[in-house]
Amino acid sequence: MENNKKNNLSVLIGAAFLMATSAIGPGFMTQTAKFTTDIGADFAAVILISIIFSYIAQLNVWRVIAVSKMRGQDIANNVLPGLGYFIAFLVAIGGLAFNIGNVGGAGVGLNVIFGIDVKIGAAIGGVIGIILFSSKSASSAMDRVTQVLGASMIVLIAFVAIKTQPPVGEALKSSVAPAGGFMNLVQPTLTLIGGTVGGYIIFSGGHRLIDAGIVGKEALPDVTRSASLGVGVAFIVRVLLFLAILGVTKMTNANIDPENIAASSFLAASGVIGYKIFGFVFAAAAFTSVVGAAYTSVSFLRTLFKPIDDNANIVTIAFIVLSTICFIFIGQPQTLLVVVGTLNGLILPITLAVILLASKNRKIVGDYNHPTALLVLGWIVVAITAFMSVQTVIANMGKLFG
């Protein structure tokens, strides 16, 4: 019994860090760096809004997954036959696009640490993901790796954040009263929500709990704690990274490279040591995100296609290989990572709406009563993120044809 409790605790923490480190990938860091340099302290408001929305979305999704004992695609098929295939396609395409950026991030990180070519570094990142999934104990190895690297990222980013001495007071004020107004924050907010719980990310930890058998109404307290920990870790890292880069933007002698904002910020803050720290953090974020994106994207296909379920590890390896090959031909990791965050933000209103409909469907959740407050807040998030999605699409179309 004691061993089961320890194993469950490890899985719960692992699920939380899988979600958090899936979110805290190269895209997460690149988005934070870019938007902090673009809008300065106003980015604090974006972080606050996105983390509130992300937490509401995460709790809704994980609770319904736990009580239904179904993965996201199966829940969708029970809401409307065939819908699960559409959702699985959206999530898998988004996950593939994100993973192309993730292996690119691994290449950038290894380039900073060792000076090797970014594409060679990306290939090494892909190989590391393949080795992890080739392990006979892939799930437990994934839990351990995400916990260790996630904790390491927090410590290293905190070190740089303290060293840059950012204007914390200005950031706190801007979090509730941004100087540029809230309407100017629509695209950054949607991108951040997408990078935190959009696309595959919101389902990553929930699917991990299903694989570990931590399901049912009796597991809800643990599920809620795990979801809270995951969002909390993502929030802490986002704030620390924002403060670190905000501090750099206030430095008069900072030389920030627009092609690699995050790396040059760490270099300006702490010299070569800071630059190498960034390389480690970025590579660690990339490795864990390669794991999270591949694992969850494939998990969306497993119950829909039996051959994939029977060969899940092989398919996951193929997913990583395809991502790596695509990056070698596409390149441009910084641009790709920001664009994909927005793409995942566009997917969120659809997937969350499906989960909220499922929460009141007795054939899916049985006699479980989903909290009314959580349901109402969930629909508010759906409405606002749908509005943001429309505004973002209109703005991008204007840029394209204007």
UniProtKB/TrEMBL annotation:
Main location: membrane
Subcellular location: Membrane
Membrane topology according to the record: Multi-pass membrane protein
Organism superkingdom: Bacteria
Keyword rRNA processing: no
Keywords recorded for this protein, A-Z: Membrane, Transmembrane, Transmembrane helix
Pfam families given in the database record: Nramp (PF01566)
Protein name, as recorded: Divalent metal cation transporter
